[in-house]
Write a structure and sequence with these properties.
The complex is a heterodimer. Chain A is an alpha+beta fold. Helix content of chain A is 44%, strand content 18%. In chain A, the strands form two sheets. A six-stranded mixed beta sheet of chain A has the order 1-2-6-3-5-4, with helices on both faces. Chain A has a five-stranded mixed beta sheet with strand order 7-11-8-10-9, with helices on both faces. The longest helix of chain A has 20 residues. The radius of gyration of chain A is 23 Å and the shape is globular. The model of chain A has no long low-confidence stretch (mean pLDDT 96). Chain B is of the alpha+beta class. Chain B has two domains: 200 residues, 2-Layer Sandwich (Cytochrome Bc1 Complex, Chain A, domain 1), CATH 3.30.830; 180 residues, Cytochrome Bc1 Complex, Chain A, domain 1 (2-Layer Sandwich), CATH 3.30.830. Chain B is built from 15 helices and eleven strands. In chain B, strands 1-2-6-3-5-4 form a six-stranded mixed beta sheet, with helices on both faces. In chain B, strands 7-11-8-10-9 form a five-stranded mixed beta sheet, with helices on both faces. Classes of the chains: A alpha+beta, B alpha+beta. At the A-B interface, helix 2, strand 5, helix 3, helix 4 and helix 10 of A face helix 2, strand 5, helix 4, strand 10 and helix 12 of B.
């Protein structure tokens, strides 16, 4: 049980306070309700580029990192489809520095040309390092547009292409800030060795004067229901063939989300999981294989991906994946196997709550989902799932016409297949 | 009162650090057990540390495979039975291999410990390396290696290690055929020598109860193992300042490694080198990051680090940069090093680094698991909490002249080895 209190400032800033006296640290996590899904399709990668610019100095403080390091602190941030999340930890004695720094960059950035020019280059190198200069690095760049035709999940957080990052202008940067970076669009968690009174006082002092702005309305196009299986084959210079197969599923808030999470655990979490035992160990068709849920705020994907052993036929391998996934639609799981994955989830939740930063991030995310208290309800939600729930959910979503498949094959096969 | 947003709030730099002093028990068979009982949740981490690192192997990958395959079958249980028993009770087994040591860690909820601990005891006592499991491991790991061979960063790591440690026991250079050569007999032998002896220790962290300690006394404490730990004499005759270039025609980025052999944490200049390293490339605001990422935009990241080994140590800068700026990046890296040799660090920068390092140390001792990690890091060297007390004291009084002297002594270009994988 993670206890917390909620404080809401007049300008709309939501603050979640969690006390943990066992740590000498304070952690501040600020989640902005903006992600790659909010981008224009001709200016993708912008939310993430913007995250980099948040470290380029704010209106009154020329460097974000230096004063934080001076206070013994450390920070980082990430952007995904849905959110942009900034976090820092520092010694509890110096917690006010966090309020000072984060409030100034919520107030306004410095918007220097130098920062934009340099971060543009840095992000382009990040694009190369993570997506282009790696074997299988471009998988996500292929799979997303195959699965989504209308919804903005069709591009990745890094962007559709490098040119979008190259073309970003300062005017766009400024209007993006105005639209999304204000108190009403943020959730702030303060966790650690700090009193509620102190959190209230410093929040009012530093964040209180920031002007309220209207929250931008989000009208994203809904992805139409897919009615026909989609398939794509690409050839690359890689040492092993691989398959990526995805089914459209629900969003993170839907109760079916937890069912899919357990299904993915049954399939591939741990060395006693089904795909590992059957396809890696027994049939030796894959060298590794995993199943996972994308967990997005809008309707997401259930993905199975694996690398094939040499000599395994890719279509045979896909049939095996299908068999394991469709099992859940026509067979009933044993209580014992369901209990196993529930136990794993229970344990994982307990262990992740040993870390102050994990707790802060989770509280912010669940507050965005609707209520930070949902974090405490997670355990019970998993515990209550029945074998019938699993089958019903599987029947609803695991259908061939609802799937997309990417064959990512070795170049040598191209000549054979042509 | 008008809020002055330009003025930073007052900061303290007198942090109070916890002591890294576990409760020590000696089990009936002489094996030491160290306990950090500071957790608030009903769970624990049990780590067993063995002198079974890569250093002790006579063929590549043997130490790694012996460690990784320990859970893949014992005299009485198959790999699947072991996995099922752990998975069913939500436990996690972490098998890790390092240069000098290896570790076997069990993470378990306390309420399931009576089911999960027996698995841990079984695998460190009765692992039997079934042939089919060894074959599966070889096939799958080889494919992973082939995939990794396409990553400039992986190739750089593999070759740079060879550049510094060729013909010494720390050379872990791997080629594809090394996977084919692994045999169950080699693993069983290494297991007998390096794990089945009386030269290991246990660290428990979390919320620990007396009956758990009693349980360990009656189980792990009763093991009488008769293997003989092999000692390996250390030698390394490789010269400083090696250079190597591995071309990868289709690369979009080049991986760069620049570094040298150094010494371990018992050396008198070790603390000073940690400070120097932090200034040069050890944090986000470092000289290398400020110049090569934040000013030039050549890379997504650049950093440097110092690694302590039982018989040696090394310093290494690493980055991946756009191929068109590889040479420029190399020049800038050497420029930053030279500047540290020629000009003393300013007070502002030194103070910032001192505060940052103390804050980082505070973060690294937060919670029982972190404390246990900090403990094994000194216990392996026979050091005590004084090592950390002196570390913090050194940081507080570090002087710019000392940093410059160390840069002059240890970072001369002629002593640094350089490797580029990609395009020059």
């Amino acid at each position: 049980m993670i206890e917390f209190e909620r404080i809401i400032l007049d300008n709309g800033l939501r603050i979640i306070y969690h006390e943990d006296k066992s740590t000498p640290l304070v952690c501040m996590n600020i989640l902005y309700d903006v992600g790659a899904r909010d981008e224009d399709e001709n200016h993708t990668g912008f939310a993430h580029l913007f995250e980099h610019l948040m470290f380029g100095g704010s209106i009154n403080i020329p460097s974000y990192d230096e004063p934080l390091q001076m206070a013994g602190g450390e920070n980082n941030a990430f952007t995904n489809n849905d959110i942009t999340n900034y976090y820092l930890t520092l010694p509890a004695e110096n917690a006010e520095t966090a309020f000072w720094l984060e409030s100034d960059r919520m107030l306004s950035l410095a918007f220097t040309t130098k920062s934009l020019e340099v971060q543009r280059q840095v992000v382009i190198e990040e694009f190369k390092q993570r997506y282009l200069n790696q074997p299988y690095g471009d998988v996500a760049l292929l799979l997303k547009p195959l699965a989504y035709k209308v919804h903005p999940y069709r591009w990745n957080t890094i962007g559709k292409e490098i040119s979008h990052i190259e073309n970003a202008t300062m005017d766009e940067v400024k209007s993006f800030f105005k639209k999304y970076y204000h108190p009403g669009n943020a959730i702030m968690v303060v966790a650690g060795n700090i009193s509620r009174q102190q959190v209230e006082q410093w929040s009012n002092k530093w964040f209180g004067p920031i002007e309220a702005k209207p929250k931008a309305e989000r009208n994203l196009p809904k992805e139409p229901i897919q009615t026909e299986a989609r398939k794509q084959t690409v050839y690359r210079d890689v040492p092993a063939n691989s398959i990526y197969k995805a089914w459209h599923i629900c969003n993170r808030k839907d109760k079916s989300y937890h069912h899919f999470d357990l299904i993915s655990d049954i399939l591939s979490n741990g060395k006693s999981s089904r795909l590992y035992l059957s396809l890696v160990k027994e049939k030796k068709m894959f060298t590794d294989i995993s199943a996972y849920v994308s967990g997005d705020m809008d309707n997401g994907l259930f993905i199975v991906s694996g690398k094939l052993t040499q000599g395994t036929d890719v279509e045979e391998a896909e049939k095996e994946i299908d068999q394991h996934v469709y099992y859940f639609t026509n067979q009933t799981l044993s209580e014992n196997e369901l209990q196993k994955v529930k136990n794993k989830v229970e344990s994982l939740l307990e262990f992740s709550n040993t870390n102050i930063l994990n707790k802060a991030m989770a509280l912010a995310y669940f507050e965005l989902l609707g209520n930070a208290d949902m974090l405490n309800a997670e355990g019970l939600k998993y515990a209550q799932i029945t074998v019938d729930d699993i089958r019903n959910t599987a029947q609803k979503y695991f259908k061939p016409e609802n799937s997309v498949t990417l064959y990512y094959l070795m170049n040598q096969l191209k000549e054979q297949n042509n | 009162m008008i809020l002055d947003r330009k003025q930073a709030p007052h900061n303290s730099i007198n942090f109070s650090f916890p002591e890294i002093k576990p409760q020590k028990y000696v089990l009936p068979n002489g094996i030491p057990l160290y306990v950090f009982d500071t957790g608030s949740q009903e769970l624990c981490k049990i780590e067993l540390v063995f002198t079974a690192g890569d250093y002790y192997e006579s063929n590549p990958l043997i130490a790694y495979a012996t460690n990784a395959l320990m859970r893949e079958g014992t005299i009485s249980k198959t790999a699947s039975e072991i996995a099922e028993q752990l998975d069913f009770h939500g436990a996690f087994l972490e098998l890790s291999i390092y240069n000098d040591k290896s570790s076997v860690v069990l993470y378990s909820l306390n309420k399931h410990l009576n089911k999960t601990l027996p698995v841990l005891i079984d695998i460190i006592q009765h692992a039997n390396y079934p042939e089919k499991e060894v074959i599966l491991f070889k096939t799958n790991q080889k494919q992973k290696f082939l995939v990794n061979q396409q990553k400039v960063d992986f190739v750089a790591r593999n070759y740079f290690n060879k550049l510094l440690f060729n013909q010494s026991p720390y050379n872990q250079f791997i080629v594809e055929s090394d996977y084919d050569k692994i045999t169950p007999e080699q693993l069983q032998k290494f297991y007998y020598q390096q794990y089945q002896n009386n030269n290991w220790y246990i660290v428990m962290a979390g919320k620990i109860h007396q009956e758990q300690i009693l349980e360990l006394t009656q189980t792990l404490g009763q093991l009488h193992l008769h293997g003989e730990k092999t000692d390996v004499a250390y030698q390394n005759n490789i010269g400083a300042g090696q250079k190597q270039y591995i071309e990868k025609a289709d690369a979009l980025q080049s991986a760069i490694r620049i570094g040298r052999r150094l010494f371990n944490k018992k050396h008198e200049d070790y603390y000073g080198m940690l400070v120097l390293n932090t200034i040069l490339g050890g944090y986000f605001g470092s000289r290398l990051m400020a110049n090569i990422r934040e000013d030039k935009g050549y890379t997504y990241g650049i950093g440097s680090g110092i690694v302590s080994l039982q018989h040696d140590g090394f310093f290494c800068i690493s980055t991946e940069v756009g191929t068109e700026v590889t040479q420029d990046a190399l020049n800038e890296i050497y420029k930053e090093i030279e500047q540290l040799q020629q000009e003393p660090v300013s007070n502002d920068e030194l103070n910032l680094v001192k505060n940052y390092m103390q804050g980082t140390f505070l973060r690294s001792v937060d919670g029982p698991f972190a404390l246990s990690d900090k403990f094994t890091a000194i216990n392996d060297y026979g050091l005590t909490n004084n090592y950390y007390i002196n570390y913090v004291e050194y940081i507080k009084q570090a002087k710019a002249e000392d940093i410059m002297r160390l840069a002059q002594k240890y970072l001369n270009k002629s002593d640094l080895s350089q490797l580029v994988v990609g395009k020059l």
